[in-house]
Design a protein that fits this description.
Blueprint (H helix, E strand, L loop, with lengths): L3 H4 L9 E2 L2 E2 L1 H5 L2 H16 L15 H12 L5 E3 L5 E3 H11 L11 H16 L6 H8 L1
Antiparallel strand pairs: 1-2, 3-4
Helix pairs in contact: 5-6
Length: 142
């Protein structure tokens, strides 16, 4: 079942963008996205659900940084399947992401959740969809 409109990373909602780049936190707050999550959760009651992606590396996919994080807050257990068949929990993926940015060691200046949010924000800046036509659309509005 295609849920790209609900859970995809290329929202048609202009309020989800900043300087042409989609913002995952804004996207997560839309009714469309929340409805998509609800469909996944409802479907998981009676079915096994797999969210598919063309990305080999889970950390390079919005499903890990956005969809899986939101599902986890609602008690859904997330496991990523790597191309070699290796399984990685969402927690393990997030720990790997923090390590990627040198944020795995906690300090007295930030909580683990703050470190995780910083790592996710940094990765989002690297991978989030950018609407190349954004400047043209902004100029037309002005």
């Amino acid at each position: 079942m295609f849920l790209g409109l609900e859970l995809g990373a290329r929202s048609k909602d202009p309020s989800c963008y900043e300087d042409g780049r989609v913002q995952y936190r804004r996207l997560a707050e839309t009714e469309l996205f929340k409805n998509g999550l609800a469909r996944i959760i409802k479907g998981a009651i009676s079915n096994q659900i797999a969210l598919l992606c063309a990305e080999k590396e889970p950390l390079n996919c919005h499903r890990t940084l956005l969809v899986a994080r939101e599902l986890e807050t609602q008690g859904v257990n997330i496991v990523h399947i790597h191309p070699d068949g290796r399984l990685e929990t969402q927690k393990e993926a997030m720990n790997r992401l923090m390590a990627m940015f040198g944020l795995e060691k906690l300090d007295m200046f930030r909580t683990e959740e703050e470190a995780l949010q910083e790592a996710c924000t940094r990765q989002e800046q690297r991978i989030a969809y950018v609407d190349e036509d954004w400047n043209e659309a902004e100029e037309m509005v002005l």
